[in-house]
Amino acid sequence: MKIALSADHRGYSGIRQLQEKLAREGHEAVVLGDCSGTPSDYPERAWQVGRAVAEGKAERGILLCGTGIGMAMAANKIKGVRAAVVHDEMTAQLSRSHNDANVLCMSADLLGQRLIEKIAEVWISTPFEGGRHARRIRKITALEEGKDPSTVTE
């Protein structure tokens, strides 16, 4: 799987380690932007990864910042991105199976590297269930288009 990765200065070390792990597992894990640890603004990193996912240049994206919240807020402004802040394996699984999240946002400050890697593993391997959840994703798409989601019935 091709996965776009990035982080601000708080998550640069964790994203580099995650890239190495994903590459060892056979994924094409590409770090976008300057993840050298110099001060950076998370919206720029969220833009790079979000655009890569929205344009089909990557199947999924993973972002790290201090809490994961800022990255998710910024990434979710990009049409076609469904970014989720995830703190454990359960929310990783549900963000994929129910919400078809295509960008994973995690906290570099609150999660250790082992948990970051485990969450990413669960998130990458969990398929979207479809069914009743597909209608809800279509409603999210309606919101992106400025439409009333209640008009989506199927």
What does this 3D model show about the protein?
The chain is α/β, with parallel strands linked by helices and 154 residues long. The longest helix has 13 residues, at 12-24. The termini are far apart. The protein has a single domain, classed as Sugar-phosphate isomerase, RpiB/LacA/LacB (Ribose 5-phosphate Isomerase B, Chain: A), CATH 3.40.1400. Helices cover 44% and strands 16% of the residues. A 5-stranded parallel beta sheet has the order 2-1-3-5-4, with helices on both faces.
Write the SSE topology.
Elements: E1 2-7, H1 12-24, E2 28-31, H2 42-54, E3 60-65, H3 69-75, E4 83-85, H4 89-97, E5 103-107, H5 113-125, H6 132-144
Parallel strand pairs: 1-2, 1-3, 3-5, 4-5
Number of domains: 1
Helix content: 40-55%
Strand order of the largest sheet: 2-1-3-5-4
Number of helices: 6
Radius of gyration: 15 Å
Shape: globular
Mean pLDDT: 96
CATH fold-level assignment: Ribose 5-phosphate Isomerase B, Chain: A
Distance between the termini: 30 Å
CATH superfamily: Sugar-phosphate isomerase, RpiB/LacA/LacB
Biggest sheet, in brief? 5 strands, parallel
Query: How many DSSP E strands?
Result: 5
Order of helices and strands: EHEHEHEHEHH
Strand content: 15-25%
User: What is the correct CATH architecture?
Assistant: 3-Layer(aba) Sandwich
Unreliable stretches:
none
The first-level CATH class name: Alpha Beta
Return the structural class.
Answer: alpha/beta
